[in-house]
Every structure is written in structure tokens, then in C-alpha cells.
Design a protein that fits this description.
The chain is of the alpha/beta class. The chain has 15 helices and 19 strands.
Length: 493
């Protein structure tokens, strides 16, 4: 039984006088019981294709049928009715209502399935009529029982992905369409998500998943590859060969003798050097009070980030990595413990002149072009830095983004937005870069190329880098590694 059939899809965008051909005659089918992986480099058109398939965007040519019903060129109300009866959609972001808890989001999805509720004016009361036992079953299946009462703003990237999957599962849809559902999760969480999708497929449910993950490709019944708006079938062997390509080594540092090894302490870049401490954190803890259910996101963590350091912090989703990074960036105040920046206990005037931050979400300003987004930190940076900054155009060129300068953020893929966010962090030539899952939205070759370019730029100015990541291969290229679990930070060596 065919759940989705798309024939000869075209989608064009116009930016000024330029025409961008995002889709060029794409045709595909997804049958009941199939897991189809949609792969392709960042910017190849995957998100555009999924939006057209789900009726969230209208193609300029071609047709889409969902479960035998025409989706294209139908009134919005009819499209919404088809989606609610057949599709479970996981977008790259914004899968949850911010004002509802995780359990309430699932409850609302269940009420939609039963009564066809609309998404406007959604309240907790709308979500509360669903069967509590069913909500608990879904929460348990995605490992979020302890986060039932949490609101989306308090979730980690991996928890947010699992909560989005829980909402899709609540609909018990015949077909799940997911855009990078495992991009920001650890390997254990990814395995949990894939096991659920495989189990669904055994019961005749289908899935179409846009992904950069080899693990998703490994469980797929078919792999489709999108490149430059055109679809091609790629063998599992070809996918494995591409993913096995080794990551390029970081450019050699001129101030470290050849053959030198990282010191036994992970906060020191190399032996025999007294590197200046840029950030010193002692006994940090951060606890969130969620109405009687305190969450200990960080517990008694200590770390020193020195000039020129390369530190990776790994750990499962929800372990506290992002919270730690926000504290180090001066964006969040610890519940206890102390932080000093450049010897000063005040976090004032650090960003964007002295510290550049790359968030899990690119956080680009939607009304500004790519070039304007990257130039903004130069306007915000306080005067007086003795480090020469880049121009916005130079920062874009560094990450091969010059051709996107005039685009708006909503015209970019998730991977492109993340690269722009990195360019924005680099443009002021800060002394520190703090990056939260900087390659999570990028395909592996692009991620390796971006990090290689970034590390070359940082090496040239002795800039320190601390990143959180689920990518073990990327973490292994850093001079020092920490591991975080249940808020506790430890040397991973």
C-alpha cells in the first residue's frame, strides 16, 4: 500500500533577480512498512522537499498524494485534515507548544487524533482530556517519564527531539515524516528513536526521514540521495564509503613543538607552558525548580579554559552540557559556585567582542540577510579590542557562504543556518569560542570541512575553543576531552 506518492516536483525561489531552483523534478514513493532515508548535503533541498510533501509549502509544479488523497493545490483546511489523519510530522525545530509541558503536548496530540482539534488557542485544558496512562506509556517509550512536567524551554536538544517524536507517536500516524530527528542526540538516544521507528514499520507504518546519520541509513529499507534539487538512489555501500571518510586533522599549531602530547590536565593545551586562564569555573551547580521537581542540571563542576585550548565536552542528551556552556558564556547564573572571565567575576561586556557563542539553534534574526546577521556583532562589540576583526564578507568566505550573503534565514537549510551562526561568532575575532553541538545539523563531510576551516582560523589567533558534541570522532580531534553525565563533569582521558 502506497502512503505517499510525489510526481515531478519543482520548487523555485526568487531573491532579487536571481532564481533558486530548490527542487528539479523530484519523484518518490513511500509504501507501508518502509523506512526511507532521504540524504544529501546541507542545502540540497531536503527540508524544502519535506515541506512540499506535507502540504506546508506549495510546489511550483508536480503533485503529491497522501494515502490516495491529493495534497497539492488544495485549501489549507483540507491539507490540515489529511495531515491530522495520516501524517506525524517532526520538523527540525518548533515541534512543541512552548506554553505546554511535555505531557500536555502529548495530550494535545492525542486530542487532535480523537477530535480533530486545531492548533490555534491551544491550552493545557485542551491537552488534559487524553488518557493519562497512554501519555505515560508514550513518555516511557522515549525515555522522558521524569520530564513529563517540564516545559520545552527547559529541555536539552536531545530531550526536545525525543519529545517531538513522542508527539508524532501520539498521533499513531500511518506515515512519519521527520527532518533530522537525530541530529542533536547522543548515540543511545538515537538508537532508542530508531528502534521505535523500526518497530512501527513492522506493524505496517511508514517513515520518511531526512538525515545525515549513518545509523538512520543503516536501518532504512531504501536510501534516496538529493543533490542540487535532484533525486538519485544511492546504495548502502556508497553511503557507508562516504561516511567512512576520515576527518581531516586540525591544522598544526605553530606554538606546539612537533610530537608534543596534550598534558595530563585537560585544561592545559600543552606541557611546559603556563597558558593564561581565560575562564575559571569552580564548583558550579545549577538547579532548576520545576514546581516541586528540582532538576540538577550541573553539579559541582570545575573547569579552566586557557588561551588556545581545544576542549570537547561529550555526554548523553540532558546531561547538562548546554547549561554548563551557557554559564561559561555568562548567559546563565549558577545556583552556586564561582566563575571568573579574564580574571574578572563580572560577565559584562564579554559578548560578542571577547566571547563568540554558537548555539544549538542558529538563532539568526529572520528580518536580516545573512550578511547583515554576520555583521551585527561588529556593531554590537564594544570598542577597544586590540585584536583585528574580520569583515562580514571575510567571515562568510571563510566558511564558503559568500553566495548566501543576500538570502534571508528562512531561505536556508538547517545546516546553512548553523554555518552562518559560526561565521557570526567568528567575525569579531574573539579570544574564546563556545559552541554547542556546532556540527549537529551538518552532514559529515560538510561538518568536517567547516570545523577544519574554523580550527585554522582559531589557530591563527590563538583563540580558545570549547565545544559540546555527540560526535566522538570530532571530540577525538580536540586536545582535551571531558565527559558529562547527570550534571557531573569529569576528565574523559
Amino acid at each position: 500500500m502506497t502512503l505517499l506518492c510525489a510526481e515531478d516536483l519543482f520548487r523555485f525561489y526568487h531573491v532579487g533577480d536571481a532564481e533558486i531552483r530548490a527542487l528539479k523534478g523530484v519523484s518518490l514513493k513511500v509504501d507501508a512498512g518502509e523506512i526511507v532515508a532521504l540524504t544529501g548535503p546541507s542545502g540540497s533541498g531536503k527540508s524544502t522537499l519535506l515541506a512540499c510533501l506535507c502540504g506546508l509549502d506549495e510546489p511550483d509544479g508536480g503533485t503529491v498524494d497522501i494515502d490516495g488523497r491529493r495534497m497539492t493545490r488544495r485549501p489549507d483546511a483540507q491539507k490540515a485534515a489529511i495531515r491530522s489523519s495520516v501524517l506525524g510530522i517532526m520538523a527540525q525545530r518548533d515541534n512543541l507548544f512552548a506554553h505546554l509541558s511535555v505531557a500536555e503536548n502529548i495530550g494535545f496530540a492525542l486530542s487532535r487524533r480523537r477530535g480533530g482539534a486545531t492548533t490555534s488557542g491551544t491550552t493545557a485544558a485542551d491537552a488534559g482530556g487524553a488518557d493519562d496512562a497512554r501519555i505515560e506509556d508514550i513518555l516511557r517509550s522515549v525515555g522522558l517519564s521524569e520530564r513529563a512536567r517540564a516545559y520545552p524551554a527547559t529541555l536539552s536538544g536531545g530531550e526536545t527531539a525525543r519529545a517531538g517524536l513522542a508527539v508524532a507517536l501520539a498521533l499513531d500516524a500511518a506515515l512519519i515524516v521527520a527532518d533530522e530527528p537525530t541530529a542533536e542526540v547522543d548515540a543511545v538516544t538515537e538508537r532508542l528513536i530508531l528502534d521505535l521507528l523500526v518497530e512501527r514499520s513492522r506493524h505496517g507504518r511508514g517513515a520518511l526521514i531526512a538525515t545525515h546519520s549513518p545509523a538512520v541509513e543503516a536501518v532504512a529499507t531504501r536510501i534516496l540521495h538529493l543533490r542540487d534539487g535532484r533525486l538519485e538512489t544511492r546504495s548502502a555501500e556508497a553511503a557507508a564509503a562516504e561516511n567512512a571518510t576520515p576527518a581531516p586533522a586540525p591544522a598544526p599549531r605553530p606554538d606546539i613543538a612537533e610530537g608534543a602530547q596534550p598534558a595530563s590536565r585537560p585544561d592545559v593545551l600543552s606541557p611546559g607552558e603556563n597558558r593564561k586562564a581565560l575562564i575559571a569555573a569552580e564548583s558550579l551547580s545549577r538547579t532548576y525548580d520545576l514546581g516541586g521537581d528540582p532538576v540538577h542540571a550541573v553539579e559541582n563542576a570545575s573547569l579552566t579554559l586557557r588561551q588556545g585550548a581545544r576542549i570537547a565536552v561529550t555526554g548523553p542528551s540532558g546531561s547538562g552540557k548546554s547549561t554548563l556552556l551557557r554559564i561559561l558564556a555568562g548567559l546563565e547564573v549558577p545556583s552556586s559556585g564561582a566563575v571568573t572571565w579574564f580574571g574578572n567575576p563580572s560577565a559584562e561586556a564579554l559578548r560578542p567582542r571577547r566571547i563568540g557563542v554558537v548555539f544549538q539553534e542558529p538563532s539568526l534574526i529572520p528580518s536580516l540577510s545573512v550578511l547583515e546577521n554576520v555583521a551585527l556583532p561588529l556593531q554590537l562589540a564594544a570598542a577597544g579590542s586590540n585584536r583585528p576583526h574580520l569583515t562580514a564578507a571575510q567571515a562568510l568566505d571563510l566558511l564558503s557562504l559568500s553566495d548566501l550573503a543576500d538570502k534571508l534565514p528562512d531561505e536556508l537549510s538547517g545546516g546553512q543556518m548553523q554555518r552562518v551562526a559560526f561565521a557570526r561568532a567568528l567575525v569579531t575575532n574573539p579570544e574564546i569560542i563556545l559552541a554547542d553541538e556546532p556540527t549537529g545539523q551538518l552532514d559529515q563531510p560538510t561538518g568536517r570541512a567547516v570545523m577544519h576551516a574554523v580550527l585554522e582560523a582559531l589557530d591563527a589567533n590563538d583563540t580558545a575553543l570549547l565545544m559540546t558534541t555527540h560526535d566522538a570522532r570530532l571530540a577525538a580531534t580536540m586536545a582535551a576531552q571531558y565527559h558529562m553525565d547527570h550534571g557531573h563533569l569529569a576528565d574523559a582521558a
